Every structure is written in C-alpha cells, then in structure tokens.
Amino acid sequence: MSHVFSSSRDEQAKLLDDSLQAVKVQAFQMKRCVDNERLLDGLKHCSTMLNELRTSSLTPKNYYELYLATFDALQYLIGALRAAHVTGRHHLADLYELVQYAGNIVPRLYLMITIGSAYMSLAGPPSADGAHGSDSDEAIPVREVMMDMLEMTRGVQHPTRGLFLRYYLSQMTKDYLPLDGIDGPEGNLDDSTHFILTNFVEMNKLWVRLQHQGLSRDKERREAERRDLRTLVGSNLLRLASLTGVPRVTYESDILPRLLSQVVSCRDTLAQEYLMEALVQAFSDEWHLATVGQLMEAISGLGPKVSIKTIVIPLVDRISAYAARRREELEKAHAAEPEEQSDDSNDAASDAGLSVKSDAAPESIDAPSEKDQTRDTLPCGKPESVQSEAEDSNAGDILNEVTENENVDEVTAGVANASLDDAVSDNNNESDKDGSDIAPEKDAGSDVASEKDADSDIASENEAIDDVASENGANSDAASEVEIKSEAPRSELDGLASLFGSFWEHVSNLIEARPDLPLHDAVAICASMLRLSLA
Fold this sequence. Notes:
The protein has 20 helices and no strands. The radius of gyration is 42 Å and the shape is globular. By secondary structure, it is mostly helical.
C-alpha cells in the first residue's frame, strides 16, 4: 500500500473516475435486470460492480466516495429482494446461500450482508418503504444470520476494505437488530449488544493497524487519513447508545467494561483519545454518574501522550450541566409541595365540616317530631323542643371539638357520659314529682320513652363521630403518602449536594496516578471542578 500515498492527486483522481464510471455502468445493468424480473442476472451485475471495492490504489478518502456510489446502488437491490421473497419468486434464504459461491470474497460478503439484512427486515419493524414482512408465518432466524455475517466478515483483514465492509454491516443491520428480552431464534437484546460490541472491537483493530501501512515518511499523511476514518469506528458507540431497553446494570457490568478494555489495550494515542471522547458524548449523564469510578480508572491507564484534559473536562462539564438542571427541577418540585399539602388539608377540613353539619341537621328536625307523638311536656316542666335544641347544641360543640383536637376516643366517652347524666337527672326529677301531676302508669311510660330517646341520641352522635374519625384517618393516610413521595426528591437533592465530594475524590486519584500530567492540564481540570462545585 506504499504506492497509495506516493501517488499524485492527478493519478488518484483518474483512478477514482474510472472506478465510479464502472460502478455507474454495472448499476444501470443491474437495475434493468431487476425491473424485468431477472433477479439472478441482476445479482451478477451487482457482483461485477462490487469488484471495484477490491482496489488498494485509492486513498481512504477517495475509497469513501467509491463506497458511497456502490451503497446507493445496493439500496435499489434491497427493495427488489424483499418483493421477490414476498411474492414467492425467490426465497431469501436460498439467495443467501447462492451468493456465497461468488469468486471473490469482497463482492461475496457485500452480497451476503445485503441479502441477510433484507431477510432480517422481514422479522423486524416496518422499514422506510413500508414493508412489514412476508405473508407466511415463517420464523426468521435473525440470530443465526447475524452471527454468520459477523464471522464471515473476518475474512477481510485489509485495514481500509475491512473498515468499510464492517461499516456497511453496521449500517444495513441497525434497524433490524432484535430488542426483545425473550430467548428464541429471532434473537434478543443480548445478541444485539454482543453483535455491536464485537463489530466495534474488530473495527478498532483494523483502524489501529492502518497506521503501520506505507512508508515512515508518510506518517503524518496516514494520521490525517486515519482522522478522516474515525467516524466509522465511533458509529458503533452511537448504535450502542441508541439501543432501547438496555438496563443500567447491563451497561455497568458488561458493556462499559468491554469498551474500556478495548480502548486501553489498543495502546494507540489517536484511538484512545478519540474513543474516550466519543464514549463521553454518546451515553447519558445518569449512566456517567453511576460509572464515574470506572471511567476515571480507565483514563488513568491511557497512554502517556493522550491529552487527559480533553477527556475529563467535557465529562465534568456534562455532569455540571446535568446537576444544575436536575437541582433546579427538584427545588421547584420541593417548593410546590407545601402549597399542595396546605390545599389538601383545607379541602379535607371543609369536607369534614360539611359532613358534620349534614349529619347533625336531621337530628334537630327528627328528634322533636318523634317525641311529640308521646308527650308534649317533660316531667321537669321544660318544653321538649328546648331540651332537644340544647342536646343538639351540645352535640355540635362536641363535634367541633373533634375536628379541632382529632381525639375521637375521648370525645366519644364524653358524649356518652353527658347523655347518661342527662338521662339520670331526668329520672330523678320524675321521681321527685311522682304522684303530683301524673298517674303512676304514665310515669312508667315516660321513663321508658326518655330512656329510648337518650339511647337514640347517643347512637346518632356516635355515628357522626365515627364518620369524622374515618375522614380524619383518610386525611392522615393521604398526608403520609405525600410525605413518602416528598422524601425521594429530598434524598436526590442530598445526593447532588455530595456529588462534588465523590467526584473530586476520583479526580484527585487520577491526578495522583498520572504524575506525568502537565501542570496546565491539571489546572484546567481543577477549574472545571470549580464549575461543578458551583452547580
């Protein structure tokens, strides 16, 4: 590959134009065969077109332009493959085996990935063109196809060709990776994470190997070419971050350790610096907070030429912005809690007062009517309506005392004692005037009637008190629920308050573990920690 970097721009432009012209001609022939329902002939023209990707004469930047041209042509083939499978003209499993007889490995693998991704799409979510899958109830072996393509791509170990081949694999399968947690032939979320992680590791190895190609005098040019290709490797981190349903425990115990192990073990300055920056930007702030210890430990193990501050400062700034934003949200929620609690207590008190009045009002109306049927005057000489009003006023005072003190047991005993004392005094008055105005038979009847009235008053007052007690109990339960809910924001606020201390411990350990860290880098990191303390 040494002649690649020594060739002039004019030679590179001529090689690229020739390759693009060949791709254009073969793509036209392929589309014409596909439109005439001659899919096998179209696959032959497609294989001829993909032969242009076998070149080693183009620089990575020019190779990328050639890749884009072939990628656009292959997108037309995918729709035809789905239509052929749905209509029953060709089964994609048979075509997947058929293209493996192609003579050259690069066209063979591109065709396998194209047909395999179209086969996977029949079991996944609807695609952009609205295809939802075949009409049959066939079980698509997504896991088997994924793992087969992943293993077959190991056959291309050329740095440039291998990088773009694996990037094509990642692009074509990103929308059809299984996300379910159920184990089966369709695969699950663990298979998807393993697929992306393995592809990332192999792409990083190829990217690092690219620096050893060519002459030593072209080292700076190779570094520039590698910087142009870094987004191919970093795209795998975006795929991992976009997977839905990945629990944080899996990220802490499986995904992040494998990523950090690969970054640290590659021992390449450019790769370590870029991949750590991409990792900080790709995943969420909450996950960084939970794994800050692992991140700092990995940063301390990077190469001596890696710029530590370009990794730590963006991480601290992201945590600072998240802490400030989260603290503001929690403080607003905490400030709104007392108002909600006061509104709830006022509503409960008003509801309790209304219920007491509604329970007491029927007694003042019904009690005199029942007693009027037996006697118009009591033995003590007071009218019955006056005494009933006095009893109702006593009951109302007692109920008000219940709403103020919320002591149901003491009030119940007081009401019972007061009612019994009234009944005993009435009986004593009747016994003092025995025989003066009323006959003995009527005295006995009046005693029985007064006892029944006292019992009915006690029962009605006890029912009212029980209703108030139940309402007070409901209000106390609601208040306890509000207190439990308010404990969560308070605990999170306490955690944010102690965030600087825990983060500073990790940063200080990092500075101690890296005595070769320049002084100005350490000062810049401390300045970012100051911003975190203010947040």
